[in-house]
Amino acid sequence: MGLVIDGKGWKIANDAAVECEAASGFAPVKHLPHFDNLTVIDSVKAGKARSNTYSTALKPLLEAAGIKHKYIETTSPTTIAEFAASLDSTGGSYLFISGDTSIHEFLNGLKDPKHFEGTISVIPAGTGNALANSLELGSVESAIERFFLGKPEKFPIYVATTGDKSLYSLVVISYGFHANLIAQSDTPEYRKLGNERFQVVAKQLLEQPQKYKSKIYLDRSEVPLPNEETSYVLFTTMKMLEPGFTISPEGDCKSLNLVRIDAPDNLMEYMVMAYNGGTHVREKNVDYIKAKNVRLETPKDSVICVDGFILTSDGMVDIDLGMEVDIVV
User: Which residues of 239-250 are buried (b: 16+ CB within 10 A; e: fewer)?
Assistant: First the structure.
């Protein structure tokens, strides 16, 4: 058996037919390094209800291409972190059928993330799918095709550190409105509402002016950015945090960008602009700046959000390049 792809779909053909299919515009799948030592990690509870991508699409294609693999299906909230912690090798190839959270859990669960030399691929199955959408892998079909025909490129993963606690960030590090929205919606009562909880909590937060004190130092500067009170502080390499929400229009997944919005009484207007192609970054009270590293001073015990997980600031948060990861694109 063999697998052939034409950019619009796949065909599984017997060996004699592969060359014929290739002649008609299909490209035979050739063996690539990231096919070796492959583990498929399927976060079955991620995102919205979905068909079984692994059994109905991916598994038959892997078998047709002759790619041996290990399959892990999540059975608890700690499955991925426990699997990552069990790895003795720094290499390997890991194909996630998941959202961003699962990849975050994997990277932070590794024994020594800085020395991770493996390869990551993603088939979007989460709610936001920031990584997949920012890499233009928004559909299952395009992501599967990219796995079979793409190649790894190095992408930076930043680490947020406050006191003796650190978290590696795949998607976003935030302070102010976004961080408090995530933190306050993460209770048993609100989790029952699903994604609607964010709208409920946002409405409650916006009943009061959104003002948060901070000092932001970029690229080892000893002088902070002007304006020590703002509404929304977010650092990301991504372009989109969810489909259509273009928080950083120049995001390329390789450069860290600061988005800082000072709009205590009308913050939602800027969120609407983010859904309108990211036009908010043109506004005069929005700072949109590239940075290599950051020092963020906040009031003690302030909430910092790292990919949906919460750190409590000890008054100082450092954001630095933590590692580089090969991601198939």
Answer: bbbbeeebbbbe
